[in-house]
């Protein structure tokens, strides 16, 4: 099986496992784990913030950020298919008492005018409390916010007195794809999160970065959420390994995704090649009157696993477990499975 469902399909390499086995560790709850401490120092600098906190998952990082930056009973403004609104089990409502204010976006992006309008039409009983933006935007297909657009939307929120959390689960993909350092995106937001269990290839792990004050409160919430660990250096060692070895190589994932998009589009599948900016390819099967689950089953029968990007659209993802010949095979097998004849 060629597994192209998600970039979470990566498994730790022998070299990563060796780095984990060799990790110098201590009690993380006492802030005595040297590997975690080193990771947090490096990540803070990389994300353009004073301080960073190691967490087991990016979902926990997002939820802690909301709790740090908001008060219950207010609105969370975000593009309607933002991860935090649709894949986190209602966490904003449960953990922080926030009401979702979903806005339609283009390529996962919401504009300064949309943010101003949402705030202007919220009332004192349910005031706007926070804006959450996502870089890259998962459900839009791993789309990259250009720095000037991200900056303009964040400025609009700040001018209205609202904090901004940047869900940068795949911020490093955006940095590699655009050539803009992660810190240049990260420092714009009040808090920023990156996930290590996606393209960076770790079995788990995330980082939340922000000001000293915000991260101090996040540290307390890490205990509240049950995320304070013991000898977590074994995981931090994998994350440090990933920062050394798995960042630049994301460009290979992006190049393979682009080639896959071009190959599938050439075989007459409904694929927007220009929308593949990082490691996802979207196949809009709804536009050819095909059901997502049915399309997935047909492709699976040919030995390829693909995921869901959003309703009606398949996700084909590249990651460090995907080689060039897997891409070649997928370009051949997927159109065949969907009954589309490759252009001769
Ligand atoms: C995967 C993902 C998360 C959550 O990551 P976990 O580490 O699996 O909790 C958050 N935001 C986005 C955009 C993601 O793609």
Task: Explain the overall architecture.
The chain has 344 residues and is α/β, with parallel strands linked by helices. The protein has two domains: 13-245, Aspartate Aminotransferase, domain 2 (3-Layer(aba) Sandwich), CATH 3.40.640; 249-343, Aspartate Aminotransferase, domain 1 (Alpha-Beta Complex), CATH 3.90.1150.10. It has 14 helices and eleven strands. The chain has helices spanning 14-21, 34-47, 58-69, 83-86, 91-96, 112-120, 147-159, 171-178, 182-186, 212-224, 233-245, 250-266, 292-301, 324-337; strands at 2-4, 51-55, 75-79, 99-103, 128-134, 164-167, 191-195, 206-210, 280-283, 304-310, 313-317. The strands form two sheets. It has a seven-stranded mixed β-sheet with strand order 2-8-7-6-5-3-4, with helices on both faces. It has a four-stranded mixed β-sheet with strand order 1-10-11-9. Strand 10 (304-310) and strand 11 (313-317) form a beta hairpin. It is globular. The chain starts with a strand and ends in a 7-residue tail after the last helix. The relative contact order is 0.17. The structure holds pyridoxal-5'-phosphate.
């Amino acid at each position: 099986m060629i597994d192209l469902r998600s970039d979470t399909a990566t498994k730790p390499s022998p070299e990563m496992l060796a780095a984990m086995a060799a990790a110098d560790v201590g009690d993380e709850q006492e802030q005595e784990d040297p590997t975690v401490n080193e990771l947090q120092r490096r990540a803070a600098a990389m994300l353009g913030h004073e301080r960073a906190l190691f967490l087991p998952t990016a979902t926990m990082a997002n939820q802690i950020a909301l709790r740090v930056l908001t008060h219950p009973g207010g609105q969370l403004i975000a593009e309607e298919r933002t991860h935090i609104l649709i894949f986190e089990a209602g966490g904003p409502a449960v953990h922080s008492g926030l009401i979702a204010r979903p806005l339609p976006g283009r390529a996962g992006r919401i504009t300064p005018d949309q943010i101003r309008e949402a705030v202007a039409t919220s009332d004192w009983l349910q005031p706007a409390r926070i804006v959450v933006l996502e870089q890259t935007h998962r459900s839009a297909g791993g789309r990259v916010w250009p720095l000037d657009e991200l900056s303009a939307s964040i400025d609009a929120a700040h001018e209205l007195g609202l904090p901004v959390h940047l869900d940068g689960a795949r911020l490093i993909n955006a940095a590699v794809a655009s050539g803009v350092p992660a810190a240049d995106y990260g420092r714009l937001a009040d808090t920023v999160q990156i996930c290590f269990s996606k393209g960076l290839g770790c079995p788990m792990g995330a980082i939340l970065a922000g000001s000293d004050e915000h991260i101090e409160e996040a540290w307390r919430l890490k205990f509240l959420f049950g995320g304070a660990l013991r000898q977590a250096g074994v995981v931090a060692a994998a994350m440090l390994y990933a920062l050394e070895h798995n960042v630049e190589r994301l460009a290979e994932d992006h190049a393979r995704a682009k080639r896959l998009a071009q190959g599938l589009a050439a075989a007459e599948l409904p694929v927007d090649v220009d929308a593949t900016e990082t490691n996802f390819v979207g196949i809009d099967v709804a536009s050819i009157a095909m059901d997502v689950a049915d399309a997935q089953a047909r492709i699976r029968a040919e030995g390829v696993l693909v995921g869901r990007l959003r309703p009606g659209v398949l996700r084909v993802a590249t990651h460090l477990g995907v080689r060039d010949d897997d891409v070649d095979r997928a370009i051949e097998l997927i159109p065949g499975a969907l009954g589309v004849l490759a252009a001769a």
